[in-house]
Specification:
mainly alpha, 89 residues, 0% strand
């Protein structure tokens, strides 16, 4: 996976104030990395990005998961995040 491409994709996404707030208010460096990979994966569906996200998940704190939950749309992912929060509380 091209780190420059991930960076450029993130830069494009955060031109939108909503996504900028999501990224910039992330509680940790790991959470910001995860969000940047989310943006990239949304645009490319690159499996390497999905794998990198999976590797980051164990490093995410309860606050990170709550932040991700707050911005998650009503889709199956929201349930996955809720389960992670419940496990950490």
């Amino acid at each position: 996976m091209d780190k420059q491409a991930v960076f450029m994709t993130k830069e494009e996404w955060i031109e939108n104030p909503y996504w900028a707030k999501y990224y910039e208010e992330a509680p940790s460096k790991e959470c910001k990395q995860y969000i940047a990979l989310e943006f990239y994966y949304s645009d490319t569906e690159d499996e390497e990005a999905a794998e990198a996200m999976d590797k980051l998940e164990p490093k995410l704190s309860l606050n990170d998961w709550k932040h991700l939950y707050a911005y998650c749309a009503n889709n199956p992912r929201k349930g996955v995040i809720a389960k992670k929060i419940a496990e950490l509380e």
